[in-house]
Design goal:
With 353 residues, this protein is an all-beta fold. The protein is 2% helix and 36% strand. The chain is built from 1 helix and 21 strands.
Length: 353
């Protein structure tokens, strides 16, 4: 029958932590005894250590193994965190979050046997500080003595040119300066008139206009100097347009006058119907004249009718008529000419009759 070993575990926390920078490891010590209570001394054993989270059966967050030799008192000394890693990460253990339980297994040659799990009632300070809750803010220390003045640093680079500031207000009017010295009298000119050749025996500052040279000259005591001269003639302007450029010849008893007609030449007595006043530009003039020369053969019964417009003569519509009225020119001789002008809206005005 296999002999069952009861190993009594004594957990000893050593005040001196083994770390180069926290967290790294902490010391763990146990005493191994057999079922009879005798110490297992001076013997090679394999030990496996696991850290469980929150409870005895909690998740194993870290596990490692150690090959150790018990001493003459059966004591096992290991540094938890420096063994051969088999699960998890020692640095990832959150020591400040919940309870932690340590499980110990031993292998005397027939495989690992769990010999117990117990709660870690105290967490090594350096490991807890790495991820424990932050403590309250400490009281601010006293103000230290001011250190000596440091050496002046090198000159910094010149900054960029700033933008121009706003224009300031206009300053007050300055005091008037002193009166300057009176200048010398100018030279007066004696004007002689207009000639086509220089006057004989001129005196100083006598002047004249030379019509042949188109220049004004003054005698300086030894020669004639130019005071002014006529400018060159300007260019000839463009030829003006002819006021009466569109003719309409009337030789029938009824004729419509077009809105582009400027002058009407008629040879027989006729009814001539004007375009509407708003069909032409304001100021449009139409002239009427009889064909032929001489005044011994008059043309009788020449009429003007205004289509939809007032025909105004001497400030009123003739004979009290309404728009569309008729004006009779009567017996027309060759020296009789008439002109009418439109207001561009609703009226034709007779400006000669």
């Amino acid at each position: 029958m296999k002999r069952i070993l009861n190993i009594f575990i004594v957990l000893v926390f050593i005040k001196t932590m083994v770390f180069a920078q926290a967290p790294l490891a902490f010391k763990y010590q146990a005493v191994a005894r057999d079922a009879s209570g005798n110490m297992i001394t001076n013997r090679n054993v394999n030990v496996r250590v696991g850290i469980r989270d929150f409870s005895i059966s909690g998740t194993v967050v870290f596990q490692e193994s150690h090959a150790v030799t018990t001493n003459s008192f059966g004591i096992i000394n290991i540094n938890i965190g420096n063994g051969t890693l088999t699960q998890g990460s020692f640095s990832a253990i959150n020591w400040g979050n919940g309870a932690k339980f340590i499980e110990l297994e031993i292998d005397l040659g027939n495989g690992y046997i769990s010999i117990g799990t117990s709660q870690l009632l105290s967490v090594p300070y350096a490991l807890y500080a790495a991820n424990g809750p932050q403590g309250p803010q400490g009281i601010q220390g006293m103000q230290g003595v001011q250190g000596p003045q440091g050496a002046q640093g090198p000159q910094g680079l010149t900054g960029a040119q700033g933008s121009a500031g706003a224009t300031g207000n206009t300053g007050p009017q300055g005091l008037q300066g002193p009166q300057g010295n009176t200048g010398a009298n100018g030279i007066s000119i004696l004007w002689l008139g207009t000639f086509n050749s220089p006057p004989l025996s001129p005196n100083l500052n006598e002047a004249y206009y030379d019509s042949s040279q188109k220049k004004s000259l003054v005698w300086n005591g030894s020669a004639w100097q130019i005071l002014a001269q006529d400018g060159a003639p300007g260019p000839v302007g463009p030829k003006g347009s002819n006021m009466f450029s569109v003719f309409q010849y009337v030789n029938s008893a009824l004729e419509d006058i077009t809105d582009t007609t400027d002058i009407v030449v008629y040879s027989v007595g006729s009814w001539m119907v004007l375009p509407s006043a708003n069909a032409v530009a304001k100021g449009k003039v139409i002239a009427f004249t009889k064909e032929g020369v001489g005044g011994t053969n008059p043309i009788s019964l020449v009429y003007l009718a205004a289509r939809g417009s007032d025909l105004i003569m001497n400030g009123s519509t003739p004979n009290g008529s309404t728009p569309g009225q008729v004006i009779m020119f009567g017996n027309m001789y060759s020296w009789h000419h008439q002109m009418i002008v439109s207001d561009g809206v609703s009226k034709w005005y007779v400006i000669s009759f």
